[in-house]
Fold these 2 entries.
Entry 1:
Amino acid sequence: MNKKPNEESLDRRRAGLLLHISSLPGNGSTGDLGPAAYQLVGFLERTGFSVWQILPVGPTHGDGSPYQSLSMHAGNPRFVSLDRLVDEGLLPPELSARQQISDREKERLLRAAWRTFVNRRDEGLARDLERFARDEQYWLDEYALFRALREAHDSRSWWEWPGDLRDRKPKAIQEAIVRLAPELDYIRFEQFQFFRQWSALKRHANERGIRLFGDMPIFVSHDSAEVWANREMFTLDAAGQPEVVAGVPPDYFSATGQRWGNPLYRWERMQEDGFSFWVKRMKTQLRLFDLIRIDHFRGFEAYWEIPAEHEHAIHGRWVKTPGNLLFDRLHQAYQRLPLVAEDLGIITPEVDAMRLAHGLPGMKILQFAFSGGPDNPYLPFRHEANSVVYTGTHDNDTTLGWYLSLDDDSRQYVDEYLGRSREAMPWPLIRMALASRSKLAVIPMQDILGLDGSHRMNLPGSTEGNWSWRFDWSQVDEELPHRLRRRVEMYGRLG
């Protein structure tokens, strides 16, 4: 018997914007939680959009992928706003006039803010930091130690550390805690500032009727605090190397499949301890977001297991998981569980049944709608209300780029389906998304700005040139908010 749909996830018809924090404009190498983030909230308020969807916000590795993070709990320190630290008196006012700040310079300034905090002895701020460290101890201490050790070993991965530290021998760990105490305090301060700034932005958005929509990857990075601290929960050998890794078989994103390389879970161990790993993970996400997309939902029913020695994803197999028991446990742990299932890829009746059993909205991608005839589930007349429709996601080309890449026959079919609209692409597809029965329609910023494929965020299966796209306010026409608001109101999505 199906459970009641999760009304907490999609309470009414809304419109949303997809834009990662890193894509905001600013004078650093990436966007942050400073003035541009607040300016975007004002833009959303003017357009009538009431949801801001964001990619995972954890600290990234060198490739910048938000789906391969150093921690599933921590925030990315690159997103900490120096302007906000100036406002707090932790950095000098003249810093706001700087034109460009490199990552190295930003880290230097964050450390300078820490020294000012220590020397100034602001009792109120100190109490807030102590409270934060106490409340977040369930992940913060392990992450701080992981980060400090990683930096002490020239950013090498944890399995390349000396054996006693790699294997977390108690004596070696205790000695490291004492030796690295000042660095551990700084990392706690860094995370305190991220969460402090995030909470302020979230409160600002919520007060204006705007929800923050986050993204939780199913897998975690091999080189992460959680894998190092919980090796027994992952399919690793005695040296910390994966025996099998995650990925997906060939699909419409990649003809050869994708070998992600993440270590896979030992689900039987997780089930034995009541899925505490996931209960803790969800606790952090619920603090950050009003709505959470669970990435690669189908992997909770069965995941694609690739032998670690194989270079290609095609050499894999499907393996079942206790996904229903996991979601039962999460519903038991949290009265409020506003989740959306990213149910793309190879979806079986079993995956659909699990999603429906837990009342989770799925996703509809309009760029996938124009093949396979009238049975295509992505066609708008087939959308169910308890779903989220997108023109495209961060893994798709921009809608204009997609449209221009179609062959002549396919483009003609799209034009005919859309009634040969007089509006230029991507506006006909934006209109289709807003008109959909889906309660939430989400439009990537690239589509709102009408940008071509050179502005896409990610090309699945590739490792170069991803995750670096940013927009500029000069690209936002002064008539755009009115144009968007008119359509949001027309299709009953006004906040």
Entry 2:
Amino acid sequence: MNRDCIEYHNYVSILKEELIPAMGCTEPIAVAYGAAVARETLGALPEKAEIYASGNIIKNVKSVVVPNTGGLRGIAAAAAAGIIAGKADKQLQVISEVTEEQKKEIAAFVKETPILISTTDSDLVFDLIVELIGNGQSARVRIANYHTNIVLIEKDGNVLHSARVEQDTDNDLTDRTFMKAESILDFAETVDLSDVQFLLDLQIKYNMAIAEEGLRRDYGANIGNVLLKSYEDLASLHDENSILLKCRAYAAAGSDARMSGCELPVIINSGSGNQGITASVPVIVYAKEAGISEERMYRALVLSNLLAVYQKTPIGRLSAYCGVINAGTAAACGIAYLKGGDFKVIAHTLVNSLAISSGVICDGAKASCAAKIALALDNAFLGYRMYENGQQFYGGDGIVKKGVDKMVSGVGRLGREGMRGTDKEILRIMLAD
């Protein structure tokens, strides 16, 4: 791909927009971010907070530990962290610098201050309003469509900032409708690495660090360590199976830590830390274990990251469709590329993988996300091995479409439209006694 063409620059822009650092699960961090902006706008510690959130935000905040809160969970904890200790200019790292004294203040604020939480009546999948009241004044902040997209700031009813809100549209981000699987591979093979290496170096540093932390300590259900026990039995073989199992273990361990409140940042993908971990860590582990060159690893990461974004774009930021399925599929394609695979190999890997595991539900952020990452990668690796062995699923087999781009479009429709009712039912189940 020519460096001067518009597609080239758009792909670079997409990577810059998507590969950003975040501490903790991105939905509670978005709540903390909104609360921090509202606190700055109010200019005082509030006496009352009201949070209005769309169902998908509630689903993804309910069970996950909010970092730097001493183990607290939920929307109230996230809002309190942003109010007490948030630094709004750090966006998705808004609560990355919290003192021990502030952790005590956060716990006291949650206990002593009314924090009312309601579901919005908005049709947007991602919609969050934080309203703070204190000293006879009020501040109101709205974030819509994606985690840092502030569309309204008000103080005492006076509008300080406003932006147009469209239905589930990332207005301020680079248009993604031009993306196709073959052009993504073309870009990955030809990109001047100086244009993207700083992003990838940070992704390698952050995401491998949290994966290693997840294996060192007791986090969540310890899926990574459960898998590594199997790896220890295979390690002496030094074969493909042992390397792929280690890829799954490290990716799962990163999620183990992240879902349990680990205070290390990650580089996200498609608004999700778990998807960022899944799209990158297996590619990094495989390249290092197999002795593949650093340059080819970088190019495989470009491919994996962009394929993850490409698959997730038609689904939307939040859905009942588990996003790590897309990221796991992208990682398997990245590994296929590391092994010398061309477009035909990568396309078949992607289609086979989506045929196997599309439909895994997202029931919020919590410990079992790590197991879903392990599942996604296992199925994606099977999709690749099918092609290695001359096997494939054909167009017309269920939702399988002939052609990789048609397959991505069809799965996008499944995740966005087909699972809307599923999404609502999942939330009702989660909130029932």
